[in-house]
Specification:
By secondary structure, the protein is α/β, with parallel strands linked by helices. Helix content is 35%, strand content 17%. Helix 10 (293-301) runs antiparallel to helix 14. The chain is globular, with a radius of gyration of 26 Å.
Length: 649
């Protein structure tokens, strides 16, 4: 028997111990103490109902339970909650064994890639094995200890399979240590065999006492700060790239003050959208593949790149082709050393808020060279009218001048719809997007200053994240004055709309705005860019109606599918509006702002009518041979970009 310091024990099942422990954990950040995991989400099956299900029912007063419809979506909801909570809180998600558990693998990968804390409690097959092979057991002859939950190992920051209840004494603290660590955080997975969940053990009473996990700010090294300050002073054309770490560190005000004092131009990644709190001559908008073309021209000329709180993915760097100045150097601020040293940067491995403040002090009365400041202002002034024209919904799009575009009855472009959302947005509102065209378009034209937030997940580019993540954002920010809007295409909506039922059940107020453009249009655009021919991306009927096995079955090039998105949403429990014109969209947004439940607004948008291009390259190779299409021109264009790729070290 294991005893605590007092010698007192309490007999609990493994599942009861898990719930008791989770409900007693608190995060402390900057002196603010909060429940680390205030609720659990899940779907019960034979692999978790008698164990975790019983424990959650017994301790519902300690850890409220939310019933979901799809395990992956519940993982996304928890991640959205954690991201909106600036990684200081998260939610627990439980699933049954087999497909319930593997549905969580995508959610785990998204959280880990984006370094967001997520606690997953999937059921697992029997530890005793005497029943096997059991329902949903993988049953591999050569590796009998492997279950489908081993799929979590490469996509999690912490994984443990609990085969005896007492293993929780070390596993649970280690899981929470990872969740609370800015450097290590991601998905923490405790795989719980269904028999072990119900097995009892005499746990030390002290194990279930309230415990605080301090989310620490790593203090910058003065020498590292001085080195970066020297690089900035010596540069003629410095440029800052701000990432999501600026938000997680609550460093937006510090970064804005640095920009205001020095006029260092600040660009933003997807996760960094809104990293500066106010607009000014230093704000140069998004960078990279979906950034402003004028920002990308600045990046090509910059002789110093300072990247702050970013992983520098290929979207931000245009597949390492963006930084074209032969003399370019790099500096960085990042709490994760792995990211800090990218591009051979002079690294400050520290909390972004503390490091930015220290850098501002080290720079003193420094201002960027006047010629560069003027060039930055010129770039801003060149982009703003292009942005405003592309998002102006009161100027009718001249569809008759574009015979190449299909006429679907839509009157608005997706850019114009974004303009209407921007017009409606108030301080405190959040727009959420994650995959397809919406996050790229928001990155390019959305104004996320003055309290209007953008929650863009593009680290994993996961379709289906947006709707449940918006619900998580709403749970993190219950202020009824703040509107949370998931902006998605019809492709994403039909993939995973079912958590609308959960929102209706729980009375969670949030809005889904669907840009109905008939398919996976952003991938069609990429397809046209790299091959010159589209295939399999629009929502169309099959020509001819032949059987799929027939040689002459035809292609997916018939009429657009007739899908009643509004009826689907209404059937799931949403308050629904459809809107075609700018004024109808305005009315729909205004009429539904105060609805206390899920709202879905369906807006037809003109397919293939894109925002201005970012004018950078991306490393997606065309086919080198194609029997029916001449890709010579595409290959030449690709090769020219390939020649611009550089290794920065």
């Amino acid at each position: 028997m294991v005893h605590g310091a007092s010698g007192r024990t309490v007999r609990l099942t493994a599942a009861q111990a898990v719930i008791r422990y989770i409900s007693a954990q608190y995060s402390v950040a900057d002196g603010v103490r909060e429940r680390f995991v205030p609720a659990a989400l899940g779907i019960f099956g034979h692999g978790n109902v008698a164990g975790l299900g019983q424990a959650l029912a017994e301790h519902a007063d300690r850890l409220p339970f939310v019933q979901g419809r799809n395990e992956q979506a519940l993982g996304h909801m928890a991640t959205g909650f954690a991201k909106a909570s600036k990684r200081r809180r998260t939610l627990a998600v439980t699933a049954s064994i087999g497909p319930g558990a593997t549905n969580l693998v995508t959610a785990a990968a998204l959280a880990t890639v984006n370094r967001i804390p997520l606690l997953l409690l999937p059921g697992d097959t029997y530890a005793t094995r005497r029943q096997g092979p059991v329902l949903q057991q993988l049953d591999l002859p050569g590796t009998p200890d492997v279950t489908v939950n081993d799929a979590f190992r490469p996509v999690s920051r912490f994984f443990d399979r609990i085969t005896r209840p007492e293993q929780l004494l070390t596993a649970l603290p280690q899981a929470f240590r990872v969740l609370a660590s800015p450097e290590e955080t991601g998905a923490a997975v405790l795989a719980l065999p269904q028999d072990v969940q119900s097995h009892a053990f005499d746990f030390p009473v002290e194990f279930f006492e309230d415990r605080e996990w301090v989310i620490r700010r790593r203090v910058p090294d003065a020498g590292e700060i001085d080195r970066v300050a020297d690089l900035i002073r010596g540069a003629e054309r410095p440029l800052v790239i701000a990432g999501g770490g600026v938000h997680y560190a609550d460093a937006t005000v510090a970064l804005t003050e640095l920009a205001r004092a020095t006029h260092l131009p600040i660009s933003e990644t997807f996760a960094g959208k809104g990293a500066i709190a106010e607009d000014g001559p230093w704000s140069v908008f998004g960078i990279g593949l979906e950034g402003s073309p004028t920002t990308n021209r600045l990046a090509e000329r910059a002789d110093l790149i300072v990247h702050v709180g970013t992983r520098l993915t290929d979207f931000a760097t245009a597949s390492q082709s963006l930084f074209a100045n032969s003399e370019v150097r790099f500096a960085s601020i990042n709490v994760v050393e792995h990211d800090a040293v990218k591009q051979g940067a002079a690294a400050v491995v520290a909390d972004a808020k503390l490091a930015i403040a220290a850098l501002a002090e080290a720079l003193g009365d420094y201002r960027v060279p006047a010629a560069w400041a003027a060039e930055v202002v010129t770039a801003r002034e060149a982009w703003l009218p292009l942005r405003d024209a592309a998002t102006d919904a009161d100027t009718r799009f001249p569809l008759e001048q574009h015979p190449e575009l299909p006429d679907t009855g839509a009157t608005l472009t997706q850019g114009q719809l974004i303009g209407l959302l921007q017009e409606h947005a108030l301080p405190g509102d959040t727009v959420v997007a994650a995959a397809g065209g919406p996050p790229g378009d928001l990155q390019k034209v959305w104004d996320a200053t003055n309290g209007q937030h953008a929650h863009l997940e593009f680290g994993f580019s996961c379709m289906g994240y947006e709707l449940p993540a918006a619900m998580g954002v709403r749970l993190a920010d219950p202020d009824p004055a703040h509107r949370v809007t998931a902006f998605i295409g019809d492709g994403t909506f039909v993939m995973m709309p079912t958590e609308i039922v959960t929102a209706a059940q729980e009375g969670i107020p949030f809005t889904v705005v669907i840009s109905e453009n008939h398919g996976y249009q952003v991938i069609r655009r990429l397809q046209m860019w790299r091959t010159g021919e589209h295939f399999g991306n629009e929502f169309r009927y099959r020509e001819g109606g032949g059987a799929l096995a027939d040689a002459d079955a035809g292609r997916l090039e018939g009429d657009y599918l007739r899908i009643d998105l509004a009826q689907i949403a209404a059937g799931l429990g949403a308050h629904v509006r459809t809107a075609t014109t700018a004024d109808e969209v305005r009315a729909a947004l205004g009429e539904t702002r105060a609805v206390r439940g899920p709202v879905v607004i369906v807006v037809p948008t003109i397919p293939h009518a894109d925002l201005p291009a970012s004018e950078v390259w991306w490393d997606v190779s065309p086919a080198e041979t194609w029997e029916h299409v001449d890709t010579t021109e595409k290959l030449a264009e690709y090769g020219a970009g390939l020649a611009q790729q550089r290794w920065h070290g």
